[in-house]
Amino acid sequence: MSIHAHRYFARVLQLSGKEEIAGTMASIGVDLHGIERMLPKTGHHLLYLKRVPVRAAMLIKQGMLARDGDAALSWEASNMSAEHTDIIMMGTEGQLRSALALLHQQPFGLPLLAKEAEIALNACIVNKPYWRIGEKSYDLSRRTLVMGILNVTPDSFSDGGRYRDPNRALEHALNMIEEGADIIDIGAESTRPGSAEVTADEELLRLIPVIERLSDKTDVPISIDTRNAGTAAAALQAGAVIINDISGLTHDPDMASVVADRGASLVTMHIKGTPETMQLAPSYEDLMGEVSSFLYDSIDRAVAAGVAEDRIVVDPGIGFGKTGDNNLEILRRLMELRSLGRPILLGASRKAFIGAILNTAPQKRLEGTLAVNTMGIANGASIVRVHDVKSTVMACRMAEAILYGRKEAEKG
After folding, report:
1. In what helix (H) or strand (E) does residue 178 lie, and over which residues does it extend?
2. In the chain, N or C terminus with fewer CB closer than 10 Å?
């Protein structure tokens, strides 16, 4: 059974300041007095769980209070007038672990809740997981992987049309590898806002010659950016080993099976809507909660089809059904997605929100992209997907030296 056969969508929150913490408490229905009383206790870890049965929530609160921690739940749950409540457990790592250990002995579904919560806590506090690609496992605890973007499309937002010719595409891919790219991600369908879907035949006509040429020249893993199972199957047969699905396995019901049957690795991304509609009027009641829940479900779908969990990476989908402010919030709170237990890929290279802030065209967004990626690494990203490989590799190595110390970073 997948560790994500869950009901509670456990995640460790990453909130900046008392005002944001108070707003999150208010959003789950905590009364003003309760918020004021609990705010002094929020200086450590905040563990969020959704739709916890009220009887279970009361046991959790009692357990946290007994350990000098606390748990925030809705006012309706406190007076037993609701059946379920979202809950925020707050305390030190030791307090949380002690309370969760006790829950394994309780009724009301609490052993399952405790297991989910412990997985989220471990993923955020203890380690970054490995990513298995082909026969190799990549240790992401000290080294960020750089995924170079190769668009073989006529209309991608940044470099559409430049690499439609297979020979030019091959030359560019080999150049990115020489600059330090760990993975080459090839896309044959533009998914910029408002773009129309291309046929599978057209997608394959653009992809297969490049995959075949590149796989003959290098052992660097080849990833295919596609949401179509037929395209994925043909690409994997031609030499690709990773499928990067921007739909989070929602576009084609056969995608997860194709990935599983061929032992491929998977990047599954959050999107709201489709490329055609995603930027019309994106809105969220709980941005990080909705992104996390979507990705939890996508992981479940993949694992149920037979994809090994250590082959899965998640992507929050910067720019895919998000406003500029949404993108910035995801970047600030990126660490929360480590609660999913899988590595995080960040794909923000040259995106429109960078251009809006810096007032620059796509080809002039290198500095903004480097800032986003280095902050992303500090906040938990393990893979960055970029157009400018050489500059990104240097920025990653510097960020790792700062985060882990030079000797530790060099071990990675």
Report:
1. helix 166-178
2. N
